[in-house]
Specification:
The structure is a single chain. This protein is α+β, with helices and mostly antiparallel strands. The protein has one domain (2-52, 60-118). Helices cover 60% and strands 17% of the residues. A four-stranded mixed beta sheet has the order 2-1-4-3. A hairpin with a 2-residue loop joins β1 and β2 (10-16). α2 packs antiparallel against α3 and α3 crosses α4 (101-118). The model has no long low-confidence stretch (mean pLDDT 91).
């Protein structure tokens, strides 16, 4: 069973059921904490997660700004997987974020590795 993350007719991630739902609910919690819409909508009848791109991009931008504005290893640890997954989804949607130079290489490498693993989910 899967839980696809879709943008219109395009599937950005054919997530496994548990992975996709976990990602969705983690995004919802982070969005609530950041006081911003997540840009993700659960489509229960179809069993998928819809991406509303402008809102999702704003959410990921705010998540990245939070990540960038602290040196707390705890905050980085909490945000890291969520941010990497979200950056991959934005790239697949054709709307990548511009990253600060101090994060560009490390996050690019993590995104590439994670994108390969997302295909195995």
């Amino acid at each position: 069973m899967s839980y696809p993350v879709v943008l219109g007719e395009d599937t950005l991630w054919e997530a496994g059921y548990q992975s996709g739902r976990m990602y969705f609910f983690l995004v919802q919690g982070a969005a609530e904490e950041l006081q911003i819409p997540s840009g993700l909508v659960a489509n229960l009848p179809r069993g998928e997660c819809e991406v509303k791109l402008p809102a999702f991009r704003s959410f990921v931008q705010r998540l990245y700004e939070t990540y960038s504005s602290t040196r707390s290893m705890h905050v980085h640890g909490f945000i890291d997987g969520l941010l990497i997954t979200s950056l991959v989804l934005l790239e697949r949607a054709g709307s990548p974020l511009e990253l600060l130079p101090e994060h560009e290489q490390a996050l690019r490498e993590e995104r590439a590795a994670f994108a390969r693993r997302m295909a195995e989910d």
